[in-house]
Design brief:
Layout: E1 6-14, E2 25-34, E3 37-46, H1 55-61, H2 65-68, H3 80-87, E4 91-94, H4 97-110, E5 121-123, H5 124-131, H6 139-145, H7 158-172, H8 176-179, H9 185-190, H10 210-221, H11 228-232
Parallel strand pairs: 1-4, 4-5
Antiparallel strand pairs: 1-2, 2-3
Helix pairs in contact: 5-7
């Protein structure tokens, strides 16, 4: 069984901020990570929310009602089935994860799918606040802190923000040095020592030949009775 850790950096864009007041998801973006490193596999789709997009959303994302009128509904297989297949049973990494979790689970429940439990989510905003108390913990501020380029971020977008989040998450965990650690995730979470090296099933055969062994014995004998080799041997 592989010890690789599979996670998904995940983001949503929505019509507004209130899932309980009828706001819906208009874009999903996701980035696959193995052992905290992006693999290059991504998922992105626009979604027709069956309602108008707020002015604030248009200003922040650049996504308009016209952009969404021909997009599939969330319940279409090209959205819900494709997304669930992409994430599998991986951990979902999100910034202010409660917001994305509420919206995603609302959409899943609307089309009769099981919600994704809180235990499967990692909140990078929470990690950042603990790591840098009192400092700004929004995604832009963390990108600047870790010298991650924001040059392409003219608008917020679910896939671009997921890619930025994947880079920030790695830095929050300790950077690339952490990703290449020889510890397992269980070792780190439990504070356990690294595992001992695996023992050979049978002792390795001696490499010394009989003449070499005899020459060594003769050399030790020539050193006298006080030789350290004779005291510890």
């Amino acid at each position: 069984m592989s010890d690789d850790i599979r996670e998904i950096a995940f983001d949503t864009e929505t019509t507004g901020l209130h899932h309980l007041e009828g706001d819906r998801i208009i874009e999903l973006g996701a980035v696959e990570m193995i052992n905290h490193i992006p693999t290059g596999r991504t998922f992105r789709t626009l979604i027709n929310p069956k309602r108008s997009v707020s002015e604030d959303t248009v200003r922040i994302t650049g996504i308009t009602d016209d952009d969404l009128k021909d997009a599939p509904f969330f319940e279409h297989p090209s959205v819900v089935d494709a997304f669930l297949e992409f994430i599998g049973d991986a951990i979902l990494v999100a910034h202010n994860a409660g917001f994305d979790r509420n919206f995603l689970n609302m959409e899943l429940e609307k089309c009769g799918r099981a919600p994704i439990p809180e235990i499967r989510w990692v909140d990078t905003a929470m990690i950042a606040r603990k790591k840098f108390p009192g400092a700004p913990a929004n995604l832009d501020a963390l990108c600047r802190r870790f010298d991650i380029s924001l040059e392409s971020r003219t608008f917020h977008g679910a896939l671009l923000d997921s890619q930025l989040l994947a880079a920030v998450y790695l830095e929050l965990l300790g950077g690339r040095a952490h990703a290449f650690s020889f510890e397992t995730e269980n070792d780190r979470s439990r504070g356990e020592r690294k595992r001992n090296a695996r023992q050979r099933p049978e002792p390795m055969a001696a490499l010394l030949t009989d003449p070499e062994r005899a020459a060594h014995s003769a050399f030790v004998d020539s050193l006298g009775e006080d030789a350290i080799w004779k005291k510890v041997g």
